[in-house]
Amino acid sequence: MSSKSPHPRIAVFKFASCDGCQLSLLDLEEELLDVVGAVDLVYFPEASRRMAKGPYDIALVEGSITTHHDAEQIQHVRRQSKTLISIGACATAGGIQSLRNWQDVSEYVRTVYAKPDFISTLKMSTPVAEHVPVDLELRGCPIQKHQLLEVLSATLAGRKPNIPTGSVCLECKRQGTACVLVTAGMPCLGPVTQAGCGAICPAFDRPCYGCFGPMESANAPALAQRFRVLGLSQPEIERSFRTYNAWAWQFRRVSEGSAGAPAAGHEGRQP
Amino acid sequence: MRRSFYRLDRSGLSLILDQLKHRGYTVLGPKACGNALQWRPLDCLEDLPGGLSTLLAPAQYRLQTGSETCLFGNPGGLDSIKAILHPPRQTITTIRKAGDQLEISQETPPAAKLAFVGIQSCDLAAVAALDRVLLQNGEADEVYSANRANAFFLSVHCTQSGPTCFCASMGTGPRAKAGFDIALTERLEGEQPEYLAEAGSSLGAKVLEEAHALPAPPEWMRQSTEATQKAAEAQTRKVNRQAARAVIDSTFEHPRWEQTAKRCLSCGNCTSACPTCFCVNYEEQSSLDLASAQRVRLWDSCFTLSFSYIHGGSIRLTPKSRFRQWVSHKLARWQDQFGVTGCVGCGRCIVWCPAAIDITEEFAVLEQAAGSAVTAGGSPHGH
Question: What ipTM does the predicted assembly reach?
Fold first, then answer.
């Protein structure tokens, strides 16, 4: 805690990402005044020029680690923070940019940049937890702002946050949304995806595309088998698992099915 | 009580609905909502799925236009009335800071007056099973009690079985034996259906009398019994319920559990769709300014890791242990705990499982593995 304020000092850090997750904090329109009344946002470059030094009580970390500088910086963030919460699919799984992990990134650099020599990047886009210990992950692309609020409320109350790790299906059934896979044969990733979004897509007659990443015991191969029965081709199945959480090992189990081995020397985390 | 039998045409049935509303009931029935039938308030008979039919198979539910004008021909839809009596999300307690004091309010709903129109025998049996758990098992659950208190059941005997139905083998249908106020048999002889209405309670008889229902021709009762008998015989799925406990007990280590667990998604669709799965989790919530807190109750599932979390970790770590827990509880352990099986044979778990796991198929494999020693005592169809 700061000597001046009784409120927890919160810092928001960004790595390779689109800023959408940290904007969820500003997107807490109705609750925003309560938030700034309850916590001290001491480092949040997206919102304020005030950039106080650490240590911090809570660091919210957005984005994946894609450069040497990122890899050093995240160590610094960890050292400065009592609690480190990674927020969003980039920070928790490597994000959409982890698609580079299956390609030759130097070829991209040569193709895209006029002076490739100026570009220093890592071969892989990896989640924060592959670099430093993470206390809590908030999933989603972007995160659900009420889950962020829940984490802050729980921290202030000194209780465990209610962040369910079961399937999206449980949310669909609780809110009475008819399963789009069963009623319309849509290739829905809900059964292998972590709840927390409020099962928005199926509520609008769209299949879940897995932006919250794998649920606690995701059986992606079994769902892929079901997709095959529904008539999806192997490339279609692989593509459906290779989006925002492509690098999560539970989804890679499927997407690497026939597409060959992952980029050399990197197995990712397994429990 | 002595049962009395009446005949109703469509307008007579409509009158019954009006009578119920007049008596202060909220009238609910299976209504087409998007892609499935769901329990919803009914304004009139037109809200019932007349002219619609459902195509059911493992992991498949299709609501489609049918040619018949029957209002009640379809097997159970997405939800059972569990979703209304034992809601998926319920605030139990709210606590507010008022100066130095804490204001604590219990959020028990007031006693409701709900009339369920078109409830089938399997779901009536499910209510009876839930009663044992939530009303008669120690202290009554306040939320369930309040919703259940004045429930009126206008049930329908099934004269057609769906391909995933197995109520006949579970002894729960397709004819409702008890628990209804009025039981209808839908008869389609002319262009419009007619109804044989059987009073199952004095209130049911009174409502029928008030609607000036005429006595039914004597042969209608016999025809009704024949029609439900035919529906029972048409069922292809079954579970030998008399042998269920012995089969489950003797196949605890059978490799089938592991084989099916490889297909199981642990998603919890089966427990959510099941009309008797009653497990809940309690969440403590607090506001950011710490001025208020709530205890909220949510449907839980034994397929989640947190469900079996005790000091040190979850005790059912593998999908196999969770799948086995669920099937064992439904078919065997429930009998130990509550004296009835937890399965009523409605087939919803088969239909709504995205992986097309079929509890009757699983049981058949285990039963065969358990061998004749186990099954000798029970009749093969369990009627």
Answer: 0.94
